[in-house]
Design a protein that fits this description.
Largest sheet: 5 strands, mixed, barrel
Distance between the termini: 42 Å
Shape: globular
CATH topology: OB fold (Dihydrolipoamide Acetyltransferase, E2P)
Strand order of the largest sheet: 1-3-4-6-5
Strand content: 35-45%
Radius of gyration: 19 Å
Number of helices: 2
Structural class: mainly beta
Oligomer: single chain
Helix content: under 10%
Order of helices and strands: EEEEHEEH
Number of domains: 1
Number of strands: 6
C-alpha cells in the first residue's frame, strides 16, 4: 500500500505549467509541522514536494497561495534525472490524488478576498461532498447546512 495523507501550508504560490502535450500540472511544497518539539523546544517542519495534474493542478494554482493550508492525499512517487553535470539525482514527490481546502473562506485577509470577488467560490464544489451515508436519514427531515452562518 502506498498512501500519504498530509495537512500543511504551501511555501509558495503554485505555478501552473503545461507539458509538451498540453497537460496542466503544478509542483509545490507543503510545510508540515512535526508532532513534537526538538531538544531546543522548537517545533520543526518537514517540507514535502507535491505534484498535481490536470483539473486539480488548475484549481490549486488558481485558488491557493503561499501560506494557505491544504489537506491532501496521494502516493509517494520516486523519480530521477541527470543534472547539468551528468550526476544522477533522485527525487521523491507526493503524486496528488485528492485535496481539500482547510482554511475557511473567512480566514483570508481582506486583501486576499478581493481577488476572488468575481470567481466562483472553491468551497462550492458539489463533487467533493458525499451524501451516500446520510447520518440524518433516520430522522426523516432534511438538514440544510449553510456556509454563510459565519458571515
Amino acid at each position: 500500500m502506498n498512501k500519504v495523507i498530509l495537512i500543511g501550508r504551501l511555501t509558495a504560490k503554485p505555478e501552473l505549467r503545461y507539458t509538451g502535450s498540453n497537460v496542466a500540472f503544478t509542483r509545490f511544497t507543503v510545510a508540515v509541522n512535526r508532532n513534537f518539539a526538538g531538544a531546543d523546544g522548537e517545533r520543526k517542519a518537514d517540507f514535502i514536494n507535491v505534484v498535481a495534474w490536470r483539473k486539480q493542478a488548475e484549481t490549486i494554482s488558481r485558488y491557493f497561495d503561499k501560506g494557505n493550508q491544504i489537506a491532501l492525499e496521494g502516493r509517494l512517487q520516486a523519480g530521477s534525472y541527470d543534472d547539468k553535470d551528468g550526476n544522477k539525482r533522485y527525487t521523491m514527490d507526493v503524486a496528488l490524488d485528492n485535496f481539500e481546502f482547510v482554511d475557511s473562506k473567512n480566514s483570508r485577509s481582506s486583501s486576499d478576498s478581493s481577488s476572488y470577488a468575481d470567481e466562483p467560490s472553491p468551497y462550492d464544489f458539489q463533487d467533493s461532498v458525499s451524501v451516500e451515508n446520510d447520518p440524518f436519514a433516520e430522522y426523516g427531515d432534511s438538514v440544510s447546512i449553510d456556509d454563510n452562518f459565519l458571515d
